[in-house]
Write a structure and sequence with these properties.
The protein contains nine helices and 15 strands. The protein starts with 12 loop residues before the first strand and ends with a helix.
Length: about 220
């Protein structure tokens, strides 16, 4: 079923409320702000993903060939901007080592090669017009700059940019990143997160860590 398009640029839709494709897993409060691309999330942002109703009727690679299909796994509190493209595994039938990369129909069964699940971990921000290639893992708290092409895994709390995307800088010190990875604030109950919103909207990781030890860990 076609998802309702956004009415204005500042409107967002929580992905958990609109995703229907069984090959997409989405956490809490992750959103897609896709007003400018005039497409919905599944048909515009996510591409070449088997599992939608129409594709299953025309060609079901799981039932027909027993393929292991790649999934898109999105964590909590992920921010995805307009015109982002997440390229998935429905077209992995092109082999550069073969004489031709053309996917002849009678070779489809043997030519498919999974790339692995694409994982966007919690608290990631993906900027406008970025492209995420198949099988990539973007670590928690990472930022992908607008227009970037991500062809390899991105470490947690790292800013990457360019084509291909390379590390620009870490968001925090190594010690602070280890604290953030321990706390995993995006997995807390919503009421606890709301109690600490003023801390989240600051740079004081030590203050958040004190809150974590007092309110979460104890």
């Amino acid at each position: 079923m076609k998802q309702q398009l956004l009415n204005h640029w500042s409107e967002i839709k929580y992905l958990k409320d609109i995703v229907t494709n069984p090959m997409i897993e989405v956490g809490e409060y992750s959103y897609y702000s896709g007003y400018y691309d005039n497409h919905d999330f599944e048909d515009g942002c996510v591409r070449y993903l088997w599992g939608d109703e129409t594709s299953r009727k025309l060609f079901n690679p799981i039932e027909d060939y027993g393929w292991h299909l790649d999934k898109l796994i999105i964590g909590n509190y992920v921010c995805i901007a307009s015109d982002v493209i997440i390229l998935m595994g429905g077209n992995h039938n092109h082999h550069p080592e073969w004489i031709t990369v053309y996917p002849f129909v009678d070779q489809i069964e043997t030519s498919y090669e999974p790339k692995g699940d694409t994982k966007i971990e919690s608290d990631v921000w993906i900027g406008m017009n970025a492209m995420i290639m198949p099988g990539v893992k973007i670590g928690e708290g990472a930022i992908v700059a607008a227009g970037s092409v991500v062809v390899k895994d991105v470490p947690p709390y790292t800013i990457v940019g360019g084509n291909p995307a390379n590390e620009i800088r870490k968001r925090f010190t190594d010690h602070e990143i280890e604290k953030l990875k321990e706390m995993r604030w995006f997995d807390w109950k919503r009421e606890k997160i709301e109690q600490a919103t003023s801390i989240f909207s600051s740079s004081s990781i030590d203050q958040l860590y004190d809150f974590y030890q007092r309110e979460i860990k104890s």
